[in-house]
Amino acid sequence: MTEPTTEATTGAPPRGPADICTPVKRKARPAASARSLRAYWAGEATSLAGSPVHAVALPVVAVVQLHATPGQVSLLATASTAAACVLALPAGVVGDRHGKRPLMVATDLAAAAVVAAVPLCWATGSLSMPVLYTVALLLSVLTVLHQAASIAIVPRFVRPQDLPAAHSRIEAACSVADTAGTYGGTLVVGLVGARLASRPQHSAAALADSLVRRAALAHTHREDPIQMVIASALNETYNGLAEETKRLYRYLGTLPGRDISPDMAAAITGLPWPQAAAGLESLADEFLLEPSAAHHDGVHYRLVSAARGHARELALRHDPEDERLLVQRRLCEWFLSIAGQAQQRLAPAQATLQRSMGCADQAYPAPFSDDAGAMAWLDTYESALLDILRVAEEAEWHELIWRTVDAWWPHFLRRHPYELWVTAHEIGLAAARRAGRDAAVRQMLASGAIGLTAAGRLDEAITWYTRALEAARAAGDIRDEGQALHGLGSCHRQAGRPDHARGLLMHAIARWEQCGYQRGIALSTIVLGEIALPDDAAHALDLFTRAHALLLELDDSFEAARALALKGHARVVTGEAADGIEAMEGALRMLTETGSIRWQARTLELLGHAYQDQGEPRTAGDCYRQAAALYADIAPAEAERVRGLEHAQ
Question: Which residues, in sequence order, are CB contacts of 51 under 8 Å at separation 6+?
């Protein structure tokens, strides 16, 4: 039995007279490769990025060079969009009936020729508003024809079922290209305008000649006309700066972070503050910097996006490696110096280690004179911390790294940026080990473990505390041994093991009594009070009262406020509601001043319980809402739990 033959194996059978009216079944056209679609997609995005540049540049040329009136600018804008209203339907027919790819290429080439007419007319002195009207109208016509062909060609690249996804990707690319083109055009016009405004003695023709000459030298952007113009404008602006300002600009290109303050500029250049601030203002006047925000230490700037790479390239070209490294070292030392002064003001007990090692210094003046200013500085530069640490890590400045992490303790303790807290301490721990600083290793282990505990990562925290305990015993350091025991006790209390926690805390108190560390004794007494509170509120009240009094004697306002909040809560539990609420409200005021978000939230939650027990649901609800809002950024699960308390009233 023979197999039936098919068209696929034998070719199409000869058609007889009866088959004349029967259509031939054609093979489906295979879909284009993914590479073809990507090429089309990228090409269209690149092409469309140029159109918004024209939309920005043509009106500026009309106003600046031809002194166009508002009516003339409006007419120019109308010419730019007229074709879309008149030719949209005919263009669709043209796109369907003619070769789509040749039409797309032809319209792009024609658009390039039309745009080239503007500088040509400018150079020959024949630029006029009728020329700009004609250019705008022709560009509008060519854009409509190009878009009609580009839409109609898509089915050639994808299967019918994939058309919606393809159109979605193309539309997204076009949207991004349009935005990029608009900002690119604005940047080009802004840079050229800034150059002319800052040097009114130079003519526009002279600037154009300069840009053309310098564009020939812009090797890194030779294939991208927009980047060539931007690079040329940046070079022209840079060459007009004073030498001191040029150096500042190059130095800024080597920095890891984004925000730049006058204090920072003075530190990295060695200039007096007024000269550094004037240099930043000069760069901002040239549109190389833009103001980012006003802070307590003055206006901060950041390099505009195009200038960042430009400044870095110039630094690599003009400044030797040793000089660039010195700039980064100055930055890191300035950062450490100011953070260290904040630590000495906000958490002097934590600064003991650096003082004992002779590390504490004040090489740079602090831009604050009170606790609020110190916290504001730390808040402002929080985003720069990891960048600074990584620069120092790459340069192997191990001593500087662990000291910087240690100096940021007040911010970690009061603001609770858990991920930053832990990551910074991992870097600091490794640096302390490489520096051979055993005491610093123990400090990093203990303070990092506190962050892990606060973040609820109890198993990791116990591991860190255990290592700290072993290291303290090996070194014979009683105070650090007590710190590790206290941390382990706190972890086990949170993990629901109160008996084990109590033994560890009592052991910590015994060790601290041996070395006379009263603050540590008070802190462990607070945790013992929290353990006692559910079963023996009166005993807990006594413990909180003792801890509070001791911390007041030591002038530790933050820890004293924590003890006072818990003391007030214990009073409410023991039936002294009025006194307890008064104590908690006083503690809340102190905690607000010190800036501890978690403890503000916890105190508000305790006040909510107290007011609810007193039959004041509205006040209790307000407390719960405020607590949930504070918890939201640092502990979302806690925020949800407190919202549940509000709704359960």
Answer: 139, 143, 178, 181
